[in-house]
Amino acid sequence: MKKVKITNKPNETLYIYCRVSTSGQDKDGVSLDVQEERGLKVSKQLGLSPIVIKEQGSGLKPFREVRPLFTQLYDSVEDGFVKNVWIDEDTRLTRYDIDQQLIHLEMKQKSVNLYVGMNENPKKWDFTTDLIDTIITKVNQNQIQKQVRKSIRSKRKLFQEGCYMKGDPPFGYKLVDKKLELHEENSEWVRRIFDWYDLGKSTVFIRQQLFQSGIKPPRSKEEWWGLNTITKVLQNKNYIGLDVCRDIMMVMYNGLDENSKYLENKMTIDLIPEHFSVAAVIRKDKIVIPHHMTEIKAFDELLIFTKPEHAHDAENLFVKR
């Protein structure tokens, strides 16, 4: 882990802390480089030796969880090794109200000079300043959370309207107006992959056929398909006409756990034979049987599942690696 350089001359050093939440902030005039440039100007005006700290991390979360460099800086403030800190504006320090009070209290107790923006005078540590900063932080925090919720609602609405919301389309599809449509050439190769697998061919055989045919794996500069990539194709629900997306509103408030919900869309197009169901390949030691599926049989290290109405086709679905 990268470490912050802490000098033995705290009164002669200015720690220039630069933070962005996302890489996209580079376009908003508050990039790390822009902040650094401003901080260096202030250090020159103050006659202090600069040490620049640059990191990307959310200001809405506790800094100890997401900002290791600032955590080191804060710990050095606690230890009395830091006396001068510069930030471009108050939200670079934090947007989290609890952290804001904690940081200000520690800096006040350790007599730290906190310089903000191009102001050569440090922030005053008094009741009025603390009150104003607390109000501003809470307002900013609420405003950011509103924007996040609005963005999530918009994405959920688009997904429910049939838009594909998971980035690049799966191999065999293309995006047209944010919706999946069959790719003229690659869709045929997806069908061949499932046909080969249905005939009992191994993923090694499938990889060889794709390589010999000059079919490159998606989103890769390599010409050789990884076996894991082929397995993911065989497990992708999009190919049976079902688009599944974790409910990002639930993720935001509940985290990625068993309480998180999934949203599902029934697509108008599918690629693979009807008797294939979700998860064409499931490892024997990690079995999760969907409630609407029927277990057919374990054969070597694989399990094959099919829909109940197609259970009579079970004997045709044994696959050996």
- What gross morphology would you assign? elongated
Average per-residue pLDDT, rounded, comes to: 78
Major sheet details = 4 strands, parallel
Structural class: alpha/beta
Poorly predicted runs are 249-260, 277-321
**Residue share in helices?**
25-40%
Percentage of β-strand residues: 15-25%
Question: What gyration radius follows from the Cα positions, in whole Å?
Answer: 28 Å
Number of helices: 10
N-to-C terminal Cα separation, in Å? 41 Å
* Sheet with the most strands: spatial strand order: 2-1-3-4
* SSE string: EHEHHEHHEHEEHHHEHEEEE
Q: How many strands? A: 11
Oligomer: single chain
Task: Describe this protein's structure.
With 321 residues, the protein is an alpha/beta fold. The protein has ten helices and eleven strands. The strands form four sheets. The chain has a four-stranded parallel β-sheet. The chain has a three-stranded antiparallel β-sheet with strand order 9-11-10, with no helix packed on it. Strand 10 and strand 11 form a beta hairpin. The longest helix is centred in the middle third of the chain and has 34 residues. The radius of gyration is 28 Å and the shape is elongated.
